[in-house]
Structures
1.
Amino acid sequence: MASRYRELGVDVSKPGVERFRGVIDDLFPDAFCVVYRDPFDPSMGLVLHTDSAGSKPIQAYLMYKETGDASWLKGLAQDALAMNINDVLCVGAKPVSFVDYVAYNPLNIDRVAMLTALAEGFAECKKVLADEGTPIAFAGGETADLPDVLRTLDVCVTIHGHVKLEWVLSGEAVKPGDVLIGLRSGGKARFENRANSGIMSNGHTLARTSLLSPSYLEKYPEISHPSKGRYLGRFRLDDVPDDLGESVGEALLHPTRLFAPIASAILKEVREGVHGMIHNTGGGQTKCLRVGTNVRYIKDTLPEPDPVFRLIKAESGVDWREMYQDFNMGVGFEVTVDPECTERVLHIAKGFGVGAQVIGRCERSRGKNALEIKSAYGNFRYE
């Protein structure tokens, strides 16, 4: 079956990125993100990581334009920051500082209102991270007025971190018998003000165009490429579908969870028992495939997907196999651990108020990494 997401112009497999492997100074090609040697201290590794809030800013833009309230843009700061700081922790690195890059169309967005909202968002994130034991410095950034390049806005963050090379989670330690522990993307963590839908910052092109009414595209043509198949949904932003518990607009804009404090606490207490960490962003539940060598990941006790994912599935018509590849499906972060550390890691995670459970295990694979998902919705294999 053809991928609905790919038809919309998004390919989660990202063909072509492999062309950079021979160019990047990567010490650990099986790790979650790039670690390169500190030229001034050979014992240390440096991490420089960059990512954005994806297409989620379009959802925030719609809420802003419909309500006139720029505070809907605030959560994008956490999305962009979380997409980076969570990844940096996946190689065991300590975040040091970050910069932002905000590009937007000044013909459609009030600059001062937008920057005020984003500044508040970054300030709130900094406070949460400091209070939870993962402080990070905000070292400035760049704002770009690009009316001829962007229709709406883009919010990006670049993070700098460091780690002793002997402590890097390189993926090499992942072995048969390891236990996979999943941390929920939904619900309410102790450092959050409200419950999260779990959507994070991936799959939004599919979610938005499957759920929202075509009337939005007619009113705001800047929110989409003019090709067919976009905005075929039946919902208004303020509609509250059965079982969702909130409006469609609210559900799609919950910010990506800051898993960094939880990951830091786990590494602080049981570092030697942690063999890998995975942030389930682009690629959803298949993100684990990039970590380790000759590993077969078996996920046979995944939790029930949050209501927002079930709604997207019902409205988009995509099959469950694609849903698990496009979305985190309720598990935003994974920790691969020695079985003896299972209960301790679960205890730490639950201490933050985040749902956590064993979701599977690791076995040996012949050749490249593989993933098997065994669920109530079918059994699926990915390589």
2.
Amino acid sequence: MKLSKFLFLLLFILSASVAFAQSSSELKRKKEAIQREIDLLQRNLKKTANNKKLTLSQINALNTKIKLMQDKITVINSEMKNLDNQIHENTNTVINLKGQLGQLKKEYAGMIRFAQRNKNAYDKMMFIFAAKDFNQAYKRIKYLQQFGQYRKKQAGYIQGTQKDLNYKIVILDKNLKEKSNLLHEQENEKDKLGKNKSEQAAVLNKYSKQEKQFRQDIATRKKQQAQIDRNIRAAIVREIELERKRAEEAARIAAAKAAKAAAAAAAAAAAKAKAENKPAPAAPVAVAKPKASSSGYLAATPEAAKLSAAFESNRGSLPWPVTSGSITESFGKHKEGQASYDNAGITIQTSEGAAVRAVFNGKVSKVGSALGRHYVLIKHGQFFTVYQNLRSVSVSAGDDVSTKQNIGTVATSGDMPELLFQIYRGAVAQNPASWIAK
């Protein structure tokens, strides 16, 4: 029973250690990813530190950086909570192992004293020969053998328990040092956060002085962006119209063939009925098929339907259109002071000259230019992805592209390297944040 309890305790310790290690490693990876985003935004902000004119990109970058710093502190708090749980478990384990070790040593000491009293071979022989019969004598021989083996096993248990105890004490010391390091890291992050909030207050003060100019800049941007979005939607509508015409032409040809076949069958049936002197059968009534939805025409062919289904099945796991970056402007309506604007996608701030890549297999539907920059529209069945604010483009309309294939490089917008990424189902804008991997 004692052995089984000991093994159960050891198994529990190992499973708890593995679970803690997995949770701890996940939190560390998350913290490192957040820090990479913070570093990227800090580099971009540093380049614009001397700019007298405040831009929306700067405000978004600073706000995002502060949010990421708060997220990092939250992750550190989670790490500390996990560590506290592990320290508590390890402390209890050390206490239990010490208790078990003491009990094992006490039992072993009793066995040693018994062995000392009966170490004389003559005494052992007398113990065996004092048996009432042969069967009892045999059992006494086996008892003496098993007693010796059990004593050896007990010595092994003591050594093993001592080893486990020493190991857990080392782990406990390591946990305590790690907690001390995390506390120090947390204090540093809180200090950095305080400085960045002061910087944010200074920016907001600067914004209040430049609010009129800032509102004008947003209005200009909104007007320009609205025009680009109209051009993209118009391109998507043209694609839908082309597919509609193709589908209707294919349906017309199929209907004509079916009508011809039906007429031939009806004529044959009428001739047979006439030969047999029977009344002619009634002509079949054509059943009108329901019309497809506008975006449904984009998935009218088996290939397009398969591509659409594949794209949709990857919702939440599509790769990012850049290898590193941070979402500084989310999907939907935004307001800065008295100025408001709408984002039909997400704005990703990345490194200067970063490569832009397709997020899924598809065909380039359009490559356009506006305000000295480029955009690429890629068709994935009834879905479209849009990559705006490109400095250069490496694909052309009609090209087939594969997942993660480079299609261009990002340009600097508002003194920051930013990519505007959009996803459409037909002509309806989707929130890309719910489609790309977390």
